[in-house]
Amino acid sequence: MAKKLYHGACYYPELWDEETIQQDITIMRETGINVVRIGEFAWSVMEPEEGNINVNFFKEIIGRLYENGIETIMCTPTPTPPIWLSHDRPERMYVNESGAIMGHGSRQHACTNHPYFRKKAALITTSLAKELGRLPGVIGWQLDNEFKCHVGECMCETCLGLWHEWLKNRYGMIDRLNEAWGTDVWSETYQSFEQVPQPGPAPFLHHASLRTMYQLFSMEKIAAFADEQARIIRIYSDAPISHNSTVMFSVDNERLFQSLDVASFDTYATQENASAFLFNCDLWRHFKKDRPFWILETSPSYAASLESYALPHADGYLKAEAVSSYALGGEAFCYWLWRQQRSGSEIPHGSVLSAWGEKTIGYKNVLDVERARKEIEPFIISTVPAQAEAAMTYSDRAKAFFRTEPHRELNHRSLVTSFYERILKAGIHRDVIPEHHPLDGYKLLFTPYVPYLSSDYIKKASAFAEAGGIWIAGPMTGGRTKEHTIHTDCALGELEKTAGIKTLFTFPMDEDTDSGRAFGVCAPLGLWSAVFDANSGETVGTIEKGPASGKAFLTEQKHGAGKIVLLGSTPSGKDGEAMLEALIVHYAKEAGLTFRTNVTPGTIVAPRIGDSGLIWVIVNMDGKGGSVTLPEAGTDMLSALAVEAGSLSIGEYEYRIIQFDRP
Predict the structure, then answer these.
(1) Which InterPro entries match (predicted)?
(2) How far apart are CA 479 and CA 505, in angstroms?
(3) Is 49 a catalytic residue?
(4) Long-range contacts for 424-427 (Cβ within 8 Å, ≥24 apart)?
């Protein structure tokens, strides 16, 4: 449960003179900013010469901020190593997939696995934690900045050695690797671990197992770097530790946040992609189940760099974002950035103040957020998000499989967000959960776009169905092994055997030539698909057009007190959206979901529970207004007026908090 709601911004006092810093603090107070994030790119200020570390400037800034009612999230500055670390030392630098060695500049240019970098990163982290860790103004730590944002897997010599160690630990003997990967294909059999290459330049595509395993290796190594920084900080500070991540980066967020205290993310989703914003909120509250998440970066108006820009938010949308994030489990809503930078690669980026100190186009919306924060804070901190009855599993490891095997440039994030949006539009309160999250309390489970399902996950989901739940697996789920190979016993391996539904064959369907019917809707079918034997389960969706005409693409089988449903293909287009929504509504009714609302698209309901019972936080996100059907009478907590059961109108970007009369 949140203790207070934070409204903050990223701030870089090292870039400004004393007069400007004082002006910034004054306007922060006027604006209602109560937390700032500092230090993430300031390594050269803290250590201008190797071994000469001095963080007194930041100690003084933290004290001044605290005196003015502004708390601090302190960052480790490791994404931007100084020139003395990188100049004329190519062996310390990141090497990309093509073998190009990064030069100094931008950020994330050093290899985070290089022993010299790690030594220096540990020293600067130790100095910061030791000097600042017990200051009363420090309420949290951010490690580094956006791990693996601009870079993927490093191909340097250091990483090559670590890769071989990782393989030895994973397989023990080279023969086991050869067998697991099936390296007899194209004479790729190895005689020792030291012969296994990195997936760098090659005449054609690399072996699937090689490429996916190298991604998983890299994800583990960046998480180990976070572990190391966190261990150092905890020696000197009790403040919670976090990192600002996203599903876009080359990280396994579930693994990353295992050793951290707070789950945090950055988001620059445009208003047209509001479902992606909500997806992040529904996911991030489950990486650290018992602690509210932080949004450490979002734009007060628009995102931009030297090469790109987005358009400003419509007036009112920022407030809708903030209220929905607090309602869905957030504790902090922070902007990148406070004052526009006068130099660098992101000089056009939206900010709260311009570089010359004037209020920007987004400033009035920041004030709207602050008014909303104050108004809703008593209701948010006295309640917690209600657990949903429907869950959708998300996997960053699946993201690695899709990067290896993107087919026709499939984007994992887009696929899962699109599926999530169908659940959202059905008015179902939903959780997006990591692979290892327990399934207690759920009635309906979706597992789309997870090529490899572990035995542990299948056993867990099978037990969930046996106990009465409905498990819907697919599309593109279960068709790959742990090592990114094809099953040789049946198409979907253990999933297929558990479901008791036989897969006849798999092939890529084409929306122009393949279609199917389910729930009274006929829609095009596309992407890599599994076709099922209609006699092995109850057929729910039949292919009507294409090479597999007459066969099943959607089938279900009783499993204990519940059932397992396999969705073998991706319905596409408007009709496909209608079919998926019909599927979701059908099984939601069958599962007996009660946390489902009759709400117009573009408006959301976030149920929360406290000592006084159930409240609904209702937010219009699309700026068109909408309505929601209240199941019973209640009280509008913002106006203290009674509301009747039935339809409640919601204005453009309006938010309402309804307390229901039942205990």
Answers:
(1) Beta_galactosidase_C, Beta_galactosidase_Trimer, Class_I_gatase-like, GH, Glyco_hydro_42, Glyco_hydro_42_N
(2) 11
(3) no
(4) 424/275, 424/278, 424/604, 425/581, 425/601, 426/581, 426/584, 426/585, 426/588, 426/596, 427/596, 427/597, 427/598, 427/599, 427/605
Task: Tell me which DSSP letter residue 644 carries.
Answer: -
Domain with CATH 3.40.50.880 in the chain: 390-591
Q: Answer for the pair 424, 591: CB distance below 8 angstroms, yes or no.
A: no
From 40, 97, 146, 321, active-site residue: 146
The predicted structure's pLDDT at residue 290: 86
Q: How far apart are CA 386 and CA 613, in angstroms?
A: 11
Residue 491 in tokens: 């198409």
Integer CA distances (angstroms), 423 to 103, 156, 522, 650, in order = 45, 43, 19, 21
Q: Which of 97, 153, 297, 405 is catalytic?
A: 297
Residues carrying CATH 2.60.40.1180, the chain: 603-660
**What pTM was estimated for this model as a whole?**
0.96
Is 297 noted as a catalytic residue in this protein? yes
- N residues, the chain: 663
User: What is the identity of the amino acid at 137?
Assistant: G
Q: What are phi and psi for residue 470, nearest 5 degrees?
A: -110, 120
At 565, which amino acid appears? Answer: V
Q: What is the pLDDT of residues 15-52, one digit of tens each?
A: 999 999 999 999 999 999 999 999 999 999 999 999 99
| pLDDT (mean) for 461-483 | 98
What is the dotted CATH code of the domain comprising 603-660?
Answer: 2.60.40.1180
Taking CA atoms, 295 is separated from 230, 432, 501, in Å, by 19, 17, 42
Name the architecture of domain 390-591: 3-Layer(aba) Sandwich (3.40)
- Taking every pair of Cα atoms in the chain, the longest distance, rounded to a whole number of angstroms, is 78
Sign, CA dihedral 102-108-114-118, equals positive
Tell me the three-class secondary structure of 358-423, residue by residue.
Answer: CECCCHHHHHHHHHHHHHHHHHHHCEEECCCCEEEEECHHHHHHHHHCCCCCCCHHHHHHHHHHHH
Amino acid (one-letter) located at 409: E
